[in-house]
Specification:
Largest sheet: 9 strands, mixed
Order of helices and strands: EHEEEEHEEHHEEEEHHEEHEEEH
CATH superfamily of the largest domain: Cytidine Deaminase, domain 2
Number of helices: 8
CATH class of the largest domain: Alpha Beta
Helix content: 25-40%
CATH topology of the largest domain: Cytidine Deaminase, domain 2
CATH architecture of the largest domain: 3-Layer(aba) Sandwich
Number of strands: 16
Strand content: 25-35%
Structural class: alpha+beta
């Protein structure tokens, strides 16, 4: 039977750190206000899509397309940005040093993701420090919907929320994922060791373009495109992906095409662990509405094969551009 809900895998180090933070603010609230404080943490996660499914950040991922979500690390927000209370785990940004603390926290997140580029943020953890409070509150659901646009920009049509509720002297973890109908589905949680293979798999890096080999490969391929008269551009997508915009056909000058977003173009989207993970090639259907059509990779080429043994040097932008140029010319006849 096909499982529709992803499993949440939480490492031992993330588990222990979460419990320590929850206990800290539980006790602090009791000492200061005779009521335990809520607190929040941010899990850095890696998504495992279902077998045979591949998507770039330009293609929205739904909850039922995810096989598992791995959480090797959780990050604790800076103290001077916290505004915790018995029924609230809030943050400030514009006073009492909160803005600088938030910027510093974002830099910390970026440093970890630079080292392990498969990691991303897809939600948060927070505590409900009282008994039988394992469900999402209306405030929790509002917070999720408030952040929907931010998640869509990263390629997610879902969100993760993990709630720790009090049980006796300890805590119970409950996870919820947002499905495509905006229902909050409870997700199974498995706690695993720090060296479990699923945790190790999420901690690969650096990104290929941050290595000398990868940088040289990009430079060499772009030089080949330039010599062949192919118009191109490059930038980054969310989740550490690299995008190359290729013009298969154009009518105006280079400046006009780039400024006006015109001409027949494709995107070559490369994941940070390319070529261990395959590229995605997208045809632009409507750039203003962010509508893209995935294209089949050239049959029999290095691009189509999913083999870690294939060296980076065997991949050629010019090869892929010529293939799609030929396909485009067929449609114009």
């Amino acid at each position: 039977m096909k499982r529709e809900r992803p499993i949440i895998y939480i490492s031992h180090v993330a588990y222990r750190k979460t419990l320590a933070e929850a206990d800290k603010y539980y006790r602090l609230g009791l000492e200061k206000e005779k009521a335990p404080y809520e607190c929040a943490l941010f899990p850095l996660s890696s998504l495992l899509l279902k077998e045979g499914l591949e998507k770039s950040p330009l293609e929205l991922v739904d909850l039922d397309e995810i096989e598992g979500i791995t959480i090797p690390f959780v990050l604790i927000p800076p103290t001077n940005a916290k505004r915790y209370a018995p029924s609230k785990a809030a943050f400030i940004e514009h006073n009492d040093g909160g803005r600088e603390a938030s910027l510093d926290f974002n830099r910390r997140i970026a440093r970890v993701i630079d080292k392990y580029p498969r990691l991303t943020l897809i939600g948060r953890m927070h505590t409900h420090p009282w008994e039988k409070a394992d469900r999402l509150s209306l405030g929790d659901k509002f917070h999720i919907f408030h952040n929907t646009a931010w998640l869509v920009e990263k390629g997610f049509n879902t969100a993760l929320n993990i709630v720790l509720s009090r049980k006796g002297d300890g805590w119970v973890f409950n996870a919820y994922g947002l499905d495509r109908n905006f229902n909050h589905l409870e997700l199974p949680i498995v706690f695993v060791s720090n060296d479990h293979e699923i945790i190790r798999g999420s901690l690969q890096g650096p990104a290929f373009y941050d290595t000398k080999e990868g940088d040289d490969w990009i430079v060499r391929n772009l030089e080949e495109l330039e010599k062949s008269g192919v118009l191109f551009d490059e930038n980054f997508l969310k989740r550490q992906w690299k995008r190359f915009i290729i013009w298969l056909d154009r009518e105006g000058s280079e400046r006009e095409e780039k400024e006006n977003n015109t001409g027949k173009r494709i995107f070559i989207c490369l994941p940070p662990l390319f070529p261990k993970e395959r590229a995605r090639v997208l045809e632009i259907v409507d750039i203003k509405k962010n509508i893209f059509k995935p294209l089949a990779l050239p049959k029999g080429s290095s691009w189509e094969q999913k083999k870690e043994s294939i060296a980076l040097s065997e991949y050629s932008f010019l090869e892929i551009v010529r293939y799609y140029s030929d396909e485009y010319k067929k449609t114009r006849r």
